Amino acid sequence: MTQQPHSERAHARLSASGSSRWMACPPSAELEKDMPDSSSVFAEEGTAAHELSEIFLLHEIGEISKRARSVRLNKFKRENEHYSQSMEDYVQSYVDVVMERVNEARATTPDALVLIEQRLDFSAWVPEGFGTGDVLIMADDQVEVVDLKYGKGVPVSAVDNPQMRLYGLGAYDRYSLLYDIDKVRMTIVQPRLDSVSTETLTADELLEWADNEVKPKAVMAWAGEGDFQPGEHCRFCKVAPTCRARAEENLAMAEYDFAEPKLLSNEEIAEILAKTGELQKWAKDVEAYALEQAEKHGTKFDGWKLVEGRSNRKYTDPEAVAELLKEKEYAETDIYKPQELKTITALEKVLGKKVFSETLGSLIEKPPGKPALVVETDKRPELNSAASAEADFGDDLLD
Ligand code: SF4
User: Fold this and answer.
1) What percent of the chain is predicted at pLDDT more than 90?
2) Which of 14, 19, 21 to mutate to test the pocket of ligand 1 (most atoms within 8 A of CB)?
3) DSSP class of residue 232?
4) Which pLDDT value is given to residue 393?
5) pTM, whole model, 2 decimals?
6) What is the mean pLDDT of the chain?
7) Could you give the CA distance from residue 329 to residue 142 in angstroms, rounded to a whole number?
8) pLDDT per position as a tens digit, 165-208
């Protein structure tokens, strides 16, 4: 079975992965359409993890032999710079979840169909809309789409997730002529966050969402119409640094009426706190964009110039330095740094999560983190502040 490498896949203008953005801010799609794709090391790592999972899954579902699995895995290890034992462990835990779902399906439908890396077309609702489902499981009256998310920066839930729903829609559209599909199940596995989340909708619920929510917005997005709506979804927008609507939204904070009284109230500080995260991200995006333009394209910004950043001295030949100092009879402790353990993350990458925890688990501790101010909806339990602890225990202290 020859499949297109993950990194070379085409992307639809109204993609499933960008749907939370173009649904919230329809004209973003028109602005983004001619912008080049940018790659990051995280995206490359994600692509590698998908390629590895494909090797494992094809063997698990009987599409390739054990020997073919081993040949492909060894080739992957040799050629992919992102491979590590830890990646293999995480990918294996994703494959375990997929196989649990496959076995569950086979328990009721022995000939359940399992498909890997399927192009899913949802163009009946979204112009030219398509995406790739990592795994599709067809059983009885249900289709399930499973998606691997290798990132660990942002937890992603399958509930109310337009990307997953569009994949589900594509799967439904493709197989509803052959199967009597009543339910569409959508699952995201995020192995590095130890997270599995699922949403199940009836086919009617999914179609209603597609007709009433998706289609009108997709039509607007395709035509470049609708209102700009800045928000969380700007994060991966290709025009995020230069988008006027986003700039206006962020700069609106500067219009805050600071006149009277002279000091901000706690309510005003709470309002400002709610905006600083987005404001910082926006400022960083603008700075990075301007630097790239100045450096790579010679762009001039009034009042700004490109200069050489600060740099540190470095040895031209470290070995020669050590030899010379030894000749002059300096002690090794004067020449070399003491040997240092690799970080926990680096060692876990080398050993893999399981071996790391079996071997070193008892020697690892997680000290309490520094207090942080976060939004009320954050899952972490609230800490007692010093003042409330004093209020709680103050009387005892006096006893
Ligand atoms: S940056 Fe945000 S507001 Fe601007 S086009 Fe992109 S998604 Fe819309």
Assistant:
1) 73
2) 21
3) G
4) 57
5) 0.81
6) 90
7) 76
8) 999 999 999 999 888 999 999 999 999 999 999 999 999 999 99
Q: Of 122, 185, 131, 192, whose CA–CA distance to 156 is shortest?
A: 192
Question: Cα Rg for the chain, rounded, in angstroms?
Answer: 27
Q: Specify the DSSP class assigned to residue 108.
A: H
Distance, CA 240 to ligand 1 centroid (Å)? 6
Q: Amino acid letter at 15?
A: S
Tell me if 161 sits within 8 A of 146, measured CB to CB: no
Confidence (pLDDT) at 37:
76
Pocket of ligand 1 (CB under 6 A): 21, 25, 28, 31, 228-230, 233-234, 237, 239-240, 243, 245-246
- Residues 254-269 pLDDT 10s: 666 666 677 888 998 8
Ligand 1 centroid vs 27 CA: distance in angstroms?
8
Q: Which residue has the higher pLDDT, 10 or 263?
A: 263
Please count the residues of the chain. Answer: 399
Domains assigned to the chain: 6-223 (3.90.320), 240-297 (no CATH), 318-359 (no CATH)
Tokens (6 digits) for 354: 């399981």
**Distance (Å) from CA 32 to ligand 1 centroid:** 9
Res. 398 pLDDT band, cuts 50 70 90:
very low
Residue 157 backbone dihedrals phi, psi, to 5 degrees:
-100, 150
Q: Which of 14, 22, 217, 234 to mutate to test the pocket of ligand 1 (most atoms within 8 A of CB)?
A: 234
Residue nearest to atom 4 of ligand 1 (CA): 243
- Retrieve residue 140's tokens: 């009885």
- Please report which confidence band the pLDDT of residue 9 belongs to, taking 50, 70 and 90 as the band edges: low
The predicted-structure confidence for 373-392, as pLDDT tens digits, reads as follows 988 888 889 998 776 666 66
Ligand 1 atom index nearest CA of 31: 5
Hey, what are 286's tokens? 């603008």
At residue 1, does pLDDT exceed 50?
Answer: no
Atom of ligand 1 nearest to the CA of 234: 2
For the CA of 233, the closest atom of ligand 1 is: 7
Q: How far is the CA of 238 from the centre of ligand 1 (A)?
A: 8
24 Cα–ligand 1 center, Å: 9
